[in-house]
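job 3f2a | input accepted
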Amino acid sequence: MSRAPLAGVALAALVGAAALAAAPDARADDARFAAVIGVNEGDAGDPRLLYAERDAARVADVLTRLGDVPPENLLLLRGADADAVERLFAAIAERVRATPDGERPLLFVYYSGHADAQALHLRGTRLPFSRLKALAKGVGAEVSVFVVDACRSGGLTRVKGATPAPPFAIEVHDRIDSEGLAIITSSAEGEDAQESDRLKGGIFTHHLVSGLLGAADASGDRRITLSEAYRYAYAQTLRATSETRAVQHPTYAFTMKGRRELVLTRLLGEAGLGRVVLADPGHYLLIEGFGAGDVAAELEAEGATELLVPPGRYLVRRRTDAGVWEARVQVPPDGRADVAAAGLTRLPFRETVRRGYAAGAASAWSVGAAFEIGAPPIPDTGLGLYGALSLQLDLEDVTLALRLRYGRSASENATLAITQDLIGADVGVYKLFDVLPRGGLAVGLGLRAGVDAVSQRFETTGRAPSRGFALGRVGPALRVELAPAASVGVTLDCGADIALVELEDEAGERALETPVVPFCALGVALEVP
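job 3f2a | predicted structure (529 res):
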């Protein structure tokens, strides 16, 4: 959770790219220009954003790689003040004036950062919206796309901006020119535009960029249109924010004269990118560096899906209601990596819960059996051999285990033979750490406490009636958990219980004893579907 431009940047990119990219039947005489601005630092009282400038760079990269915006026609400005923005528009206007006769200039303006209802907040300076509109109008483009992504700050999921403010003083009927105007706001009125620390960017922007790179290609023609990108980004943003305190509904108003469906990006020429082909539906994460880097893409695939990403090594994680699967892929430049469900390895469900991978699944249950060997809880009664049945509950932060156990021990000397039966129950609380990048091994510490009923029978030449009593026990344990298969776990617990038991001494006096009882238990657990 963080503080980045989200709906706006995305929608911006979306509609902006829309205006900048040609429609399937758009004329080839469009000259596309883009001014992309990202500023993390606003007024003195604004919290510093983390990802506004990063998201601006991502949008700029998509527009130049796949959105038909020539690199020389895109100006990216990060960490700027109001004077720098003025100079940026002057430079864009000069380039537009140099457009050859017969070409129609299209302008995309994107801003990500702090704002209120009257002005952008730019590193201690302010640029009024009225001035921003005048600057864009002065460029002289026939079609202009406006995107302003305002912000506030929050708690766990931080949101963009400083304090709640009235809606932006921008209206669709404020036309910049006679041909077309698109105005994008970051969310519905009264809502927050959110960032994600995990995604290292705005939530909407992340899903918009994923859509523009291929995830939104519902038609399969390798052209991402405005409606495809918006539908995809809207649905994914709503899904992602529905689990937070501030649900977000991206919105926009888009009016163009004489134009049909606009293409935002074209996936026909990869421009040095590689193609990941996801054969099966599911929720996917692509993480750079085989899982050691940033999230490169997060998407919901409803069927076979292709996605363009920078070449390199990726961990692909697929999540469905049935579980979580992973695979490592190498994506070559201008090549492809095919990912099918059959080639993925399923992770143990309890591990996916502990790691936080299984969104919407807060717990994992398993049942098991174990064999335990331990020192005698009562001196001189022989080594204890026990069998146990267990029920385990794995949560993200802690693992709980309930056990029922039965055991017998025996000892004898020249005059006395003792047979001791023990039946009891205990509860264990463990903190486990999954130590391998791809899972399968966890270690941790725990504490278990329980109570046992003990029955002793004696064989002797004299009179020695049977007796029974109860004992309590509590102690630490070290746990190692190995997963040889996704639904199977093998556990080894070793530790020492401190027993609490009242015993009689040779003089018949009763006293509370606290013997230390070392133990080791080897168990097998099966996942409960």
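job 3f2a | The first strand starts at residue 30 and ends at 38.
job 3f2a | closed
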